[in-house]
Specification:
An 8-stranded mixed β-sheet has the order 3-4-2-5-1-6-7-8, with helices on both faces. It has a single domain, classed as 3-Layer(aba) Sandwich (Rossmann fold), CATH 3.40.50. α1 crosses α12. By secondary structure, it is of the alpha/beta class. The protein has 12 helices and 8 strands.
Length: about 270
């Protein structure tokens, strides 16, 4: 069975989708089989990978509410060096799922049931779920289905805002729905070494979350901001930039932390 990681933070603009897109690509370049589930109605992971949402006949709404099979919805993302990964794309249709899920039996576990009843997921090493920037029923479904969560934290003044509520939600999910859920790590993003506030936030986060903070930090990097508008991951947009090197380091750290190994054929 694959390792399922939900990337979540109810605070918007922290680098959540950027992390899903580029961590998925980095893992794929290291020889891992990857599936992304875009569970955010904004569909930024979908469009950021060059998929035209207007051309989609099926999306994650159909997976959650209609129980369409994965193979009918999946889109392949072709990378350079003959690498690729798959995505279950999202559109604004998914925004209605939060309301409609209230009428479903076992509504917190709908995604988990769909995934674990589908043998198609067994081919993957990792499944990454891009969660909406809210603690909604969609987010609860992502936490229910996941083995672990990855929490991006922007290096800015209000970094810790909302994390107490997120932590409370995680504990409730562990208590009532998914006792095996654990913290994959807290990921510091948009770090600027020239900014004293950034350095203060790094120290504050590390003092609070201690060993749960990942070693890799993602820098503030213009190439990372530009790449989604070209529908490319950072590695295919500019493999030599600092953002690319950082996300490759993160990919290696995630694999190593999970007791795995990787094949590196490209020098980053």
């Amino acid at each position: 069975m694959p390792k399922i990681i939900s990337v979540i933070n109810q605070k918007g603009g922290v680098g959540k989708t950027t992390t899903v897109v580029n961590l998925s690509a980095g893992l794929a370049f290291l020889g891992k089989k990857i599936l992304v589930i875009d569970l955010d109605p904004q569909g930024n992971a979908t469009s950021g990978l060059g998929i035209d949402k207007n051309d989609l006949s099926l999306n994650t709404y159909d997976l959650i509410m209609e129980r369409n099979i994965l193979s009918e919805i999946i889109k392949k993302i072709q990378l350079s060096d003959n690498k690729s990964f798959n995505i279950l794309p999202s559109t604004a249709d998914l925004s209605g799922a939060d309301v409609e899920l209230f009428d479903k039996n076992n509504r917190e576990n709908v995604l988990k049931e769909i995934l674990f009843q589908n043998s198609d997921i067994e081919i993957y090493d990792y499944i990454l779920i891009d969660c909406p920037p809210s603690l909604s029923l969609l987010s609860i479904n992502a936490l229910s289905a996941a083995n672990s969560i990855l929490v991006p934290i922007q290096c800015e003044f209000y970094a810790m805002e909302g994390l107490a509520q997120l932590n409370k939600t995680i504990e409730l999910v562990k208590e009532r729905i998914n006792e095996n859920l654990r913290i994959e790590g807290f990921l510091l993003t948009m770090f600027d070494a020239r900014n004293n506030i950034c350095k203060t936030v790094v120290n504050e986060v590390k003092n609070y979350f201690k060993e749960k903070v990942l070693n890799t930090m993602i820098p503030k990097n213009v190439k990372l901001a530009e790449s989604p508008s070209f529908g490319k991951c950072i590695f295919d947009y500019d493999k030599n930039c600092l953002g690319s090197k950082s996300y490759m380091n993160l990919s290696k750290e995630i694999i190593t932390n999970n007791g795995g190994s990787y094949v590196e054929k490209i020098s980053w």
